Amino acid sequence: MFADEITSIYGPVFNITLNKWLDLSNKSYLVNNGNIPKWEQALDLLKTSKNGTLSFQSPYLAIDCVGLESEILQPALEKLMPWRKGPFKINELKLESEWQGDLKWQRIIKHIQPLKGRKVLDVGSGNGYFTLRMALAGAELALGIEPFLLFNYQFRAINSLIESPPNAHMLSLRLEEMEKAAVFNTVFSMGVLYHQRDHMAHLKQLKQMLTPEGELILETLIVDGPKGHTLVPKDRYARMRNVHCLPSVETLVSWLKEAKFKKIKVVDICKTSIMEQRRTKWIGENSASLEDFLDPSNDQLTIEGLPAPKRVIVIAQK
Ligand SMILES: C[S@@+](CC[C@H](N)C(=O)[O-])C[C@H]1O[C@@H](n2cnc3c(N)ncnc32)[C@H](O)[C@@H]1O
């Protein structure tokens, strides 16, 4: 399908594996999802435009497309709502996503090995905002994997507007569906660990995807507490379903040690702010965001009475 061109670039061993991933990804589009016609329509609308150049215009990933009518652009992008990750600026249209992704990227980029010339895997890439940032930072290949089809369509929409897209690609896959292959120099898992039923299996597979000495960038929710402490929400956490286990920093480091990562460094801890995760019209006029998920009388707690979201960035080596 659309990512075919990447198989011709990266050498035979990588290509055999990549082809298997591509097949799986292509199959995942064959599901019976009633939204697909609407999302395809959005792509068709955008096809009529001339492509532009991609750049970073703080805090936006910006694309300037000569001759792209806002009467076409805005309704096309609205068909792909909600936009969680971004922000993007396409001509004069500011697509203010729920998350102001540049804040996370700034916390990360100063601590990691330069991405120039590296093969990079972005696990749980959402719509590929960060995958594109990785490619713009010089990655030889930035491969996002994301099982949620809408986010794959968002990536395709954005990518379709770029004249010479950087080496960023996205496949509709879950990490555990990927054949284990030690082919990536850098692996990112950001905002994904707490969604896993089996966090150790996730960490071990992240390691298996890395080349020797390759670098892991793990960004995840944590709670305060000593080594061994975890929070297992009974129901939702900050209104999110599928949050399985939030470790303390010390617990997380012990998990990484158990998975046999080396040179484990905690480089950043920060409480998520309502500037970073905010209500915008691009998630729907009446849709809720972080400020609605916190206790109105105490912003240290979620609406469920649990500790408010705090995130860590850990870097480790295979
Ligand atoms: C909270 S979002 C984070 C997106 C982005 N990485 C970021 O940091 O903003 C988590 C994403 O991971 C995806 N995801 C969850 N489990 C996954 C898995 N096992 N393999 C790949 N992606 C997964 C979800 O569909 C979701 O889009």
Give the termini distance in whole angstroms.
33 Å
**What's the rounded overall pLDDT mean?**
94
Overall, the morphology is globular
Helix content: 25-40%
Strand order of the largest sheet: 7-6-5-8-9-15-12
Give the helices and strands as they follow along the chain: HHEEHEEHEHEHEEHEEEHEHEEE
Instruction: Estimate nothing, just give the exact number of structural domains.
Output: 1
The value of Rg in angstroms is 19 Å
Task: Indicate the CATH architecture.
Answer: 3-Layer(aba) Sandwich
**Any low-confidence stretches, pLDDT <50, length ≥5?**
none
Largest beta-sheet characterization: 7 strands, mixed
Question: Helical stretch count?
Answer: 9
User: Which molecules are bound besides the chains?
Assistant: S-adenosylmethionine
**Strands, total number:** 15
Question: Which band does the percent of strand residues land in?
Answer: 15-25%
Global structural class: alpha/beta
- In CATH terms, the superfamily is Vaccinia Virus protein VP39
Fold-level CATH name: Rossmann fold
The CATH C-level class name: Alpha Beta
Describe the structure.
The chain is built from nine helices and 15 strands. It is an alpha/beta fold and 318 residues long. The protein has a single domain (4-317), classed as Vaccinia Virus protein VP39 (Rossmann fold, 3-Layer(aba) Sandwich), CATH 3.40.50.150. The chain has a seven-stranded mixed β-sheet with strand order 7-6-5-8-9-15-12, with helices on both faces. Strands 1-2-3-4 form a four-stranded mixed β-sheet, with helices on one face. A two-stranded antiparallel ribbon has the order 10-11. α2 packs antiparallel against α3 and α2 packs parallel to α6 (149-160). S-adenosylmethionine binds at residues 85, 99, 123-126, 130, 145-148, 151, 174-176, 190-192, 195.
